[in-house]
Design goal:
The protein is an alpha/beta fold and about 400 residues long. Helix content is about 25%, strand content about 25%. A 13-stranded mixed beta sheet has the order 1-2-3-4-5-6-7-8-9-11-10-12-13. A four-stranded mixed beta sheet has the order 14-15-17-16, with helices on one face. α9 packs parallel to α11. InterPro entries: LRR_dom_sf.
Amino acid sequence: MVDQITSIRLSDHDNIPYEIDRFLSHGFTFRQFTRLKSLTLYCNCCKQVQEKILFELHYISTELTHLTIILNTNYYFGIDINERNRSLVNIIWSLPKLIYCKIKMPYFPVPTIVSTSLQHLLIVGRPFYSFHDIAYLIKYTPHLKQLTLPRKERQSTDHELSSSLTSIISLNTEFYLEQEHRIINFFRNMPNLCQLTFRMVNLYIDGYKLEQIIRNDLIKLKILRFEMSIISNNENIRIQKVPELLKSYSSPFWLEERRWFVRCDWQQNNNNVYLYTLPYAFYDYHLVWPIRSQLTCFPDYTYDWSYNRYNNEQCAVLARSPLGMQCEALYIYAKNRTCICDLVQKMANLRFLYVNCYENQKHRPLSETRDQLIEWLQPRISSKWVIAREGHSSPSLVLWIR
């Protein structure tokens, strides 16, 4: 039976404790699974069990195409860690059919073996790499197309990237206290980029400069997602910087040619200004309430998020905006039920609407079979829309196209 299994996923997270330990205690070894194509390991187990797992990887199936290894870095210490990790990375790079690899370890060394197949690489964890490391990583991974890297911190001994990384078509990374000209040079050395996702901490590139980089050097770029944060304890500088930044991202290139929209958030009682593309592309966001926002698709309007319900006028502005005209799914808090009609009728591409309506709270269902607000809405919007409550007693409505 084991020679028929093509995929294994083992996890030692809190919700699935001791799964890897039980796998080993039953006498299973990776070398038994000769047709294994996909292996996922989330190792939150003790150091001894992790050591067994890493030893077993020496005998992994040469048929493997997808590999994910997330190691618990708390158990890693000692002078042999670099050599042990290099040995593991070289084993991975020697797999002849491996296409996808996601790996987290406390130290990721550059391999010394050329991978003949690896195309998608995600390195998760602590910021242990330089531009020099990236160049060597690509050298030993010549077919690499998609690359995700952890935070890149500025290093005084680091040199700018001097070689062109023509194989990379997708990049996802983060820069911390890095110099602008080095980042720009880094981007320019990937002329075939189609997708670029990046975060900058205490650093930004204005829209004029980024537009020129894309026009001149990243002509194949189709998807751009970023977040830049600016830290200043001078409120006057923050007030001046926000309109300048938004103006730089409001040219025809951004709003009409590419339709890439940018939002800027800032807080009066906080030193941070955040500039990011819409929709938001990252898994976390630092929020200090109350927050103020301005968007390139609403250049003359500043949102004060001390309130959070849209009125009819604000819904109309949203519906007419470039963002509203291309929006397909919307989650919104509205002040009254006529806002729902306005959004559905005026947003041509809308296919899904989740709305929490203040007036809706006064029109809860009359019974299990009758709902006053839904009955009011149905004759006022197209019959192609289905209307339902999120729950019988919920103030929120869900609308979608059949």
